[in-house]
Design goal:
The chain is of the alpha/beta class. The protein has two domains: about 180 residues, no CATH class; about 280 residues, Alkaline Phosphatase, subunit A. It contains 16 helices and 18 strands.
């Protein structure tokens, strides 16, 4: 029978009283409480910090003596168990992590599960076991809340400061922000863009090809100085290479829409109706979007909303449940087919899977030519960059054989973080804390280029639309002109979007590449 405890200390059993009466129960309860206090903050991305551990420890001790709350807390813990791998890998829940979880497909989910380190599964099982033991061995003596107002006040304060409450607080806030962003994107589908473009003087190409790479860090490409030869074609091909291009954000969901659309409030909000595709349409070019990223619906992601404005859309995989691991090289077959069609000047977007985790699965039959001491996943990442180099080389060859003038652009949506995975070596994951999460390649290969130029300058992806207007030789009153990529100097005050605000790029720390 449960007993209400008043404020009298003589009626309350201390840990030592419980230890004398039932040592196994007392020690089991204490160990379970400590386990929850340590693992829960880790599971929701707080890491191992004394403040949260103490907060959780005291809160859990108090919670044992409150009617019904142990059952409530037990229910609250199980979603945290499900988030544990993402929490340990990516940190606290934010809109970027939420978007990645919401917009994934079964294949990507399977690949993510396969990349989860074994210790995450062990921690998840430990968390479940600790929660069940804590609940089973909870105190049967309850506080009388009407006589312990101060206790209740302290408990509420601890709970609101705990990792449990903050996890759900972040979830509500980020769900709201995510769906608000989706509503803005969906509303853009019905907005008719008003570009009012006029032609610029200068040499125009018949074909413009935009290759959008995935998860490629610039500092792992030999064309930018990496010692392993990951880009043999790009190392010497005539073209213009920017060494210092900074992506808008650290994942596809946040980065590409901000690069490919007009942005307001210095990048905090975007105008998805006015994007690179609708600008090319307004300029009279025939637009194609050929993607290996999958298609969940024209209103489901910022990228798919931009792509839906193109004259022609080709997806190698459609629908969340039909997604599969298709080789990027199939994109080149589609490119050949498009070039065989009659028509005027074209802008063709090729959206790759590139180096997206799991890197080894991106290779298909491509041979891994690297044998570094950093493990299989690391070597696969280098090979995926070498494969991208081969992809660009083949696209370049296809364009040359077309007999038309062309300009080929390649950039990556964001970089990655290299992390040590115990004895299994290193692997790459999404991250937001390092400059290298945003340092990406940006290069132009034109049919008329005669020399290989690598130029160091700091340019922001938030100015991509200014570059794009100059590239296709148009101007519009909605954008300031004069952004010739070869002539422009460093952008001032380069910032990145960290899913909640803009952060000065220079304030970020750096992670050196592994040689």
């Amino acid at each position: 029978m449960k007993t209400d405890l008043s404020a009298s200390s003589s009626q309350q059993l201390t840990f030592f009283d419980s230890l004398r009466q039932s040592p196994i129960r007392a020690w089991g309860s204490l160990i379970a409480t400590m386990g929850l206090a340590v693992i829960i903050p880790m599971a929701v991305g707080f890491g191992v910090g004394l403040e949260q551990i103490l907060t959780m420890l005291i809160m859990l001790e108090f919670a044992k003596r409150i009617s019904y709350f142990p059952g409530v807390l037990l229910v609250l813990i199980f979603p945290i168990v499900a988030y544990l791998p993402a929490g340990i890998t990516y940190g606290k829940l934010n809109v970027g992590v939420l978007a990645s979880l919401m917009e994934t497909n079964p294949l990507e989910a399977q690949e993510f599960i396969l990349t989860i380190p074994a210790y995450c599964y062990i921690l998840a099982l430990m968390l479940i076991a600790a929660a069940l033991v804590w609940f089973k061995l909870r105190s049967q003596q309850l506080f009388n809340m009407s006589k312990n107002k101060l206790f209740l006040f302290v408990f509420v304060g601890l709970f609101f400061h705990s990792a449990v409450f903050k996890f759900y607080k972040y979830a509500v806030e980020n769900f709201s922000e995510y769906y608000e962003a989706k509503e803005v994107l969906a509303a853009a589908m019905s907005v008719e863009p008003e570009w009012h473009v006029t032609a610029l003087q200068g040499e125009r190409s018949d074909l413009y090809v935009v290759i959008i790479g995935e998860s490629v860090r610039k500092d792992y490409m030999s064309v930018y100085g990496y010692p392993h030869q990951t880009t043999p074609f790009l190392n010497s091909v005539p073209g213009y290479f920017v060494d210092g291009y900074v992506s808008a954000s650290s994942n596809t969901w946040a980065s590409l829409p901000r690069a490919l659309s007009l942005s307001h409030d210095n990048g905090l909000s975007i105008d998805p109706a006015h994007n690179a595709v609708t600008l090319a349409n307004a300029a009279g070019l025939e637009t194609y979007w050929i993607s290996n990223q999958g298609f969940l619906g024209s209103k489901d992601t910022g990228v798919s909303i931009i792509a839906s404005r193109s004259s022609h859309q080709i997806y190698l995989k459609k629908g969340e449940y039909n997604s599969e691991n298709i080789d990027d090289l199939i994109l080149l077959e589609k490119l050949k087919s498009v070039l065989g069609r009659n028509g005027g000047r074209k802008v063709i977007f090729l959206h790759m899977m590139g180096s997206h985790p799991h890197e080894c699965q991106r290779l298909h039959d491509y041979v891994v030519n690297f044998d570094t001491p950093y493990g299989e996943r690391f070597n696969c990442y280098l090979a995926s960059i070498e494969k991208t180099d081969s992809f660009i080389a083949e696209a370049y060859s296809i364009l040359q054989k077309s007999g038309k003038s062309f300009s080929l652009l390649y950039f990556s949506d964001h970089g990655m973080t290299a992390t040590k995975e115990s004895s299994h070596g290193y692997r790459f994951k999404h991250g937001a804390e390092y400059r290298e999460n945003y340092d990406v390649p940006f290069l132009l290969l034109n049919s008329v280029d005669m020399e290989h130029v690598v130029e160091k300058k700091r340019l922001s992806a938030f100015n991509f639309m200014r570059f794009f207007t100059d590239w296709i030789k148009v101007k519009t009153s909605l954008l300031p002109g004069g952004y010739d990529i070869k002539a422009v100097q460093d952008d001032q005050e380069v910032s990145i979007y960290n899913f909640s605000k803009l952060v000065d790029y220079n304030s970020l720390s750096s992670q050196e590449s592994l040689k």
